[in-house]
């Protein structure tokens, strides 16, 4: 199945790593949208179909937590699942993300398998012919 995935991170190289990792996790055929902060992402979501959002926490203009909270207040956006991809890995911070409405959390550094393990229960299984290719060392950062 083809999904529309929005990657929200202020780092262009990190967005590229996430995009490549999604491909290795079996989501390579998906439409990938990108935004550099929560404010830009909200605007993009208002004008584009999005199946799932992968967002960082630490971003300028609007951080990931504020982004999730604002999106969950908008009727057209509130049912879109959010997965936080961040270095903020302490239990209190993760609990805060989940209480804000995040559907999942992935700690950086991540692998294709860890991305897939969080995404599959949220948006569904990828096509059977798609397999995880962990042989590319570039995917572990």
UniProtKB/TrEMBL annotation:
UniProt KW Cell wall biogenesis/degradation keyword: no
Superkingdom of the organism of origin: Bacteria
InterPro entries for the chain: CheY-like_superfamily, Sig_transdc_resp-reg_receiver, ST_Response_Regulator
Residues where 4-aspartylphosphate is found: 56
Segments forming domain Response regulatory: 4-123
Keyword Glycoprotein recorded: no
Name of this chain's protein: Response regulator
Organism: Desulfobacter latus
Lineage: Bacteria, Pseudomonadati, Thermodesulfobacteriota, Desulfobacteria, Desulfobacterales
């Amino acid at each position: 199945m083809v999904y529309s995935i929005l990657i929200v991170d202020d780092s262009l190289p990190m967005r590229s790593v996430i995009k490549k990792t999604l491909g290795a996790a079996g989501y390579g055929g998906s439409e990938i949208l990108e935004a550099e902060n929560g404010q830009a992402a909200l605007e993009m979501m208002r004008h584009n179909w999005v199946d799932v959002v992968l967002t960082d926490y630490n971003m300028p203009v609007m951080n990931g937590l504020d982004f999730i909270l604002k999106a969950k207040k908008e009727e057209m956006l509130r049912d879109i699942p959010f997965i936080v991809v961040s270095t903020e890995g302490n239990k209190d911070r993760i609990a805060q993300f989940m209480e804000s409405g995040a559907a999942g959390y992935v700690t950086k550094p991540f692998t294709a398998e860890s991305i897939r393990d969080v995404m599959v229960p949220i948006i569904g299984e990828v096509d059977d012919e798609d397999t995880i290719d962990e042989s590319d060392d570039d995917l572990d950062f």
